[in-house]
Structure formats: structure tokens, C-alpha cells
Amino acid sequence: MASLAWFRLRRISVIFCAAIGFLMVLTTLVPLTRWWALRLASPWEDSRGDTLIVLSGSSNDEFVGYNTYLRCQYATVAWREGGFRKVIVSGGPASSPQSLAMKSFLVSVGVPESAIVVEPRSTSTRENALFTKELVSAADGKLVLLTSEYHTYRSARVFRKVGLNVSPRPIPDISKRSSSFVGRWPAFLDLCAETIKIIYYRARGWM
Questions:
Q1: Other CB atoms within 10 A of residue 1 CB
Q2: Domain, as residue range, for 19
Q3: 162 and 193: one domain?
Q4: Three-state secondary structure call for residue 4
Q5: 144 and 52 in contact (C-beta within 8 Å)?
Q6: pLDDT recorded at residue 170
Q7: Residues ≥6 apart with Cβ < 8 Å to 38
Q8: Percent of the residues in the chain that have a pLDDT greater than 70, as a whole number
Q9: For 13-45, how does the pLDDT look when each residue is reduced to its tens digit (9 = 90+)?
Q10: For residue range 65-79, what is the model confidence (pLDDT) as tens digits?
Q11: How far apart are CA 184 and CA 6, in angstroms?
């Protein structure tokens, strides 16, 4: 009986590993991740306005992670286009805020320190929205939300849910990573995690 149970467990393990391997190969060879990310960003617009809200992403201890760095790069581009009067950088945790590192980056590339407002407490997209709302007034004019393309669908709806009427400005994150075969599998896992978060946020009524 024990040998039969072991055989079944072994068979299930082999099938599971084979399925994962097939999925990795399929994801690597087919540009599924880019298509999926662009669907979450649709419609793609380089929105302009008065206040630019930039959300933090991944972190590496006290240093910004790759997608946070990308968002700061594209926030710089948006600022240099002209029109924005204020930039809100949002992201914690409070013990080592990503938003402070984001501010340092933006200042280093020429964004005036006086134009940057830091929101250092948030540790989730919902907290990004709630805590940013405390920093926004009617005088801030049109609000533009800048984040990775795959994060745009959820974040824009979360901000609107708390009463901030934002115009999305997605930036190419997974679209960039998907240009490399090596980057497609990690990008696929990020998209799976984001889809789970979308389902969770919908179930909680946060978007």
C-alpha cells in the first residue's frame, strides 16, 4: 500500500515538473508576457498634467529595485517634457522608504527638490492611494499616475476608488524585459502575481 502511494506521489511530481518545464519553454519562446503586460496597460497614453504621481516598485534593501529605477527614469522624461509642477513619490516602508531614494534620484537628474513631495509610509498599492490622497489638494490640478505597464490596470482603479481621478501614464517594464529570452520567465511570474493581486483587490472591493 505504501509503495502504491509512493508511486502515485512520484507520478504527480513528474507530471508537475513536466508541466512547469513546458510552461517555461512556452513562455520563453512565445511573446506572451509582452502581450499580457500591454493588455494591462491598455489604452497606452503618455498623459500630461499638473501633478505626477510616481509609485515605487521592487526594492533591494535601501536601494531601489529595477522597476522602481525604471519608473524614476521615465518620471524624469515626463518632467523634462514640461507642464508638471509637482511630483509625488510614493513608497515605504517607513523604516527605509523607497520614496526617499526616488527623490534623491530625481534631484540628481535635475528635478527641483522643491517640486518633489515624499510619501514614505505605503507598503501596498492601496496604501499608495490612501496616503497620497492626504497630500493632494484641488490646487494640484490634473493628476497623472506613472507606474509599470503591468501595474497600471490595478493601480489606476485603486486610486480612483479612493477618490483620486488619475490619468495613467504606463511605462515599459515587462515590455523591456520580454525582449530578452532570459527575462521572459521572471516577467511571467510577475504577471501571475499581479493577476492574483487584481483578483484579491476586486474581492476586497478596493478597485
A1: 5
A2: 2-38+178-204
A3: no
A4: helix
A5: yes
A6: 96
A7: 44, 149, 175
A8: 83
A9: 666 665 565 556 556 655 677 788 888 988 888
A10: 888 999 999 999 999
A11: 35
In the block, cell 504577471 appears at 191
**Would you tell me the crossing angle of helices 181-204 and 149-161 to the nearest 10 degrees?**
20
C-alpha dist (Å) from residue 47 to 65, 69, 83, 186: 24, 20, 11, 28
C-alpha cell at position 173: 517594464
H helix runs in 30-172, sequence order: 32-41, 66-81, 98-108, 125-133, 149-161
Nearest to 99 by CA among 64, 67, 143: 64
pLDDT in tens, 136-170: 998 899 999 999 999 999 999 999 999 999 999 99
Cell representation of residue 190: 510577475
In total, how many domains does the chain have?
2
